[in-house]
């Protein structure tokens, strides 16, 4: 049941407004996301900026509705052929245990040719079976399959043993993760005092999970320097890099610095050069480092595919490479309709290019860490295999899986359901002395 349905009844004009808002935005959003590849969250942000009169309840309703629309789009629009408002209603029913007042109103306005059942408690397979039974009598109906929830080419670049489990995990929003910078208990206690339940990870000491959609910055304002919002799989990258105290690292695709900040916290007194092609992201990184009182991070624009590598050598180089991002589809349900096998292949080419370019900056005996938030074979094991084929001075170095404590052979695929959270592939390579 969503938050609206737990609160006091909404006035009729609000539920009508919700239905009208969906009718207004969904057709345009569909075109922009599906045909032009624009991210749904940015479209929504921009729409909400243009409609300042909408309150937090309306915003929450729209965000939830838009994301559930894209999450089930493969069945509701592609396969069943519903119009956007109908598809949004069915998408919401598929992930709720009861329709909110606004969706109830929408249901009455629409005239779906089958009964709308709430299936929030069912597994994706059970939902599939139930919908197939409900829709069986519709003219020209083709039975739904789990595979319809992603593009047909999905299976061509993913381990066939894992493909269905991946799709299943995309249909559910994972928790949000915090990396605590002091002790996890202080943060979980502070959250409990605000009535928010949270969980500590049993292996990754700093990691705390909370329900998605909670405004942590707002709730934990007094503790703002003591935690970083960072997905659990992303925290594993820093733990696997395991930088030594006082060492000197280069984070060559640093973005806004999630991993640079983690490396800095882990190494204490070390030095990090954080580079990226995006100058605004580096400015944000600087701002975040100041907020956390972290010194020792220097930023510099750098194009890791085309710029000459530095002459300086580092104890470690982290390549958190630009990738297809398929590992994040449970958080960004529209992203699966904006990416293709072609993107995966292009990303893999760029990833190998980056590794080949920056490897010269790893000291003899130093580390090269390669990470991507995806699980497609061309961007993970194949990139590493191609790199190792060309550079026999680098060898995979075994490490312990931070999530389980089990030994790996130097590379780890974290699947989205394992954290649960983002999927991430991480390799630790040691350069020969
Ligand atoms: C996965 S994101 C990095 C996320 C970041 N490390 C973090 O933990 O927050 C990949 C980054 O690579 C950057 N990038 C893309 N192409 C690049 C290039 N040719 N050279 C350097 N950085 C690049 C993107 O701007 C993006 O910030």
TrEMBL record:
The active site is at residue 373. The keyword Translocase does not apply. It comes from the Bacteria. Residues 163-432 form the SAM-dependent MTase RsmB/NOP-type domain. InterPro entries: MeTrfase_RsmB-F_NOP2_cat, MeTrfase_RsmB-F_NOP2_dom, RCMT, SAM-dependent_MTases_sf. S-adenosyl-L-methionine binds at residues 276, 320. Keywords: Methyltransferase, RNA-binding, S-adenosyl-L-methionine, Transferase. PROSITE patterns: SAM_MT_RSMB_NOP. Belongs to the class I-like SAM-binding methyltransferase superfamily. RsmB/NOP family. PANTHER family: NOL1_NOP2_SUN FAMILY PROTEIN _ ANTITERMINATION NUSB DOMAIN-CONTAINING PROTEIN (PTHR22807:SF61), NOP2 YEAST -RELATED NOL1/NOP2/FMU SUN DOMAIN-CONTAINING (PTHR22807). This is SAM-dependent MTase RsmB/NOP-type domain-containing protein. It comes from Pontiella agarivorans. The lineage of its organism: Bacteria, Pseudomonadati, Kiritimatiellota, Kiritimatiellia, Kiritimatiellales.
